[in-house]
Write a structure and sequence with these properties.
The protein is of the alpha+beta class. The protein has a domain at 6-45 and 94-150. The chain contains 6 helices and 20 strands. It has a 16-stranded mixed sheet that branches. Strands 3-4 form a two-stranded antiparallel sheet. The protein is globular.
Length: 442
């Protein structure tokens, strides 16, 4: 299709969308052309709302002036004088071209659609399953956004390491420092790293897997976590932990993914913004807004000298109240706001408010509410542009997890993470994601 002249290609995609609209019982005016849908979905769209001049600093004194560009959690932090937001120019986090091509093929062959039950998706073969803008009139728009997040671009990589601190928000005292390594791999619907599209053999039909290992401190050393997520979202994840002091593997019960992980402010379910199945939440699309989000260029920041990395890499610095906030720049981004309510009885969270970046579908901001419906935690997951990071990440098109903070506003505590992320699937061989690997971990 890419070899067609532009006019013929647009006509072809229009005809395809007209046919799809007819099958779905929709009129053509309700749909944009296929070409414009693809372009809009993967572009930085700057709406007509007023912008904030790059270089502006938002703090306690002027927060009300900019409140329309801030979520409730950041308004709280700024009003309390906990943090200042530095505004940088908005840049494009260009998604990998192979992933965009997979999205086009998806439209050409058979567009993905939701099944009758949450957690069911039909006809999906790769790329972004629902590239069109969410509509308030669509009762399942929030669920479609969640699927776009699940099937976002990037075939795997590693964080080597995460420097993870537990801190007192009021005093800044560092109570714990963990050195952790994380590796992750997509087994299906791959677009850039061989083998494409799937890793085989894959007898359990795993979609993706992640592996975590703790190296420091001594009492946590060699603790390992393995999560295998199946292509069938209605099937419960397989999750295992290995504790070095016990020297045995234990399978995690369903509810344990919502416990405080290793005594931190973070649940396993919080990893990467959201680390659970689509079917475990009721997803409600609220709105699309222009908001300040923690997207930036790592190499443009004033970085930390605290840790001496062998190759000279410098980590993001932390500042603000208790040293709980990443010292980064924030960009104005188009964001889809989605409320997610757990369906599992007894879940410690009543709801999460996710802020999905509309260009990449990465989650950079989350608000977490307790069972009473009161704000409990503010999550910040800083995303660096891959072209302004380690040389090996250039051109990957993957927004890199580069800094993180989970701030418990009730307990006045936080857990912070400084990441050295590699968007390189070769660092995560598929043999690593087997249970027997945990048994040989010592």
């Amino acid at each position: 299709m890419n070899k067609l002249p532009a006019q013929s290609r647009a006509s072809y995609l229009n005809a395809l969308f007209s046919m799809t609209a007819g099958l779905l019982g929709l009129s053509m005016p309700a749909l944009a052309t296929a070409e414009s849908v693809i372009e809009r979905s993967f572009a930085v769209v700057r709406e007509s709302s007023p912008s904030i001049a790059p270089g502006a600093v938002i703090n306690k004194a002027n927060v009300d002036q900019y409140r329309e560009f801030l979520d409730a959690g950041m308004i709280l932090a700024l009003r309390n004088g906990w943090y200042d937001i530095k505004v940088a120019p908005s840049t494009s986090f260009d998604v990998d071209k192979a992933y965009i091509a997979a999205t086009e093929r998806e439209i050409k062959k058979s567009p993905a659609r939701l099944g009758d039950k949450p957690g069911e998706i039909l006809s999906y073969t790769g790329g972004r399953p629902f590239p069109e803008d969410p509509q308030a009139s669509d009762p399942r728009a929030g669920e479609k956004i969640a699927w776009n997040f699940r099937y976002t671009h990037g075939d795997g990589g590693a964080i080597l390491p995460i420097l993870w601190k537990y801190r007192n928000l009021l005093t800044g005292q560092v109570e714990r420092l963990l050195r952790v390594e994380v590796r992750f791999l997509k087994f299906k619907y791959r677009t850039t790293a061989s083998p494409i599209p799937d890793v085989t053999p894959n007898p359990s039909n795993i979609y993706a897997a992640s592996y975590l290992k703790v190296f420091e401190p001594t009492d946590f050393k060699n603790t390992q976590l393995l999560i295998q997520r199946f292509d069938d979202d209605t099937r419960q994840d397989d999750a295992y932990m290995y504790f070095g002091f016990q020297r045995r593997v234990r399978r995690l019960a369903t509810g344990q993914t919502t416990d405080a992980f290793l005594g931190s402010d973070v649940m396993i379910e919080d990893f990467d913004g959201y680390n659970a199945r689509i079917s475990e939440m009721k997803w409600t699309y609220k709105e699309t807004r222009q908001l300040l989000m923690p997207f930036y260029n790592h190499n443009d920041l004033k970085l930390s000298d605290e840790f001496k990395d062998p190759d000279g890499f410098q980590y993001v610095n932390f500042s603000g109240q208790g040293g709980c906030f990443p010292d980064i720049a924030w960009q104005m981004r188009k964001v889809h706001v989605v409320e997610a309510e757990p369906v599992m009885p007894g879940h410690p969270v009543s709801k999460r408010i996710f802020y999905f970046d509309a260009q990449t579908y990465a989650i950079a901001r989350t608000l977490i509410y307790d069972r009473k419906g009161e704000l409990w935690k503010i999550a910040i997951l800083g995303k660096s542009h891959p072209d302004h990071h380690l040389p090996g990440n250039k051109g990957s098109g993957v927004p890199l997890n580069d800094s993180g903070a989970m701030i418990d506003v009730q307990a006045k505590h936080c857990s912070t993470g400084q990441f050295k992320t590699f968007a390189q699937p070769g660092l995560s061989p598929n043999s690593l994601f087997q249970v027997q690997n945990l048994r040989g971990g010592d």
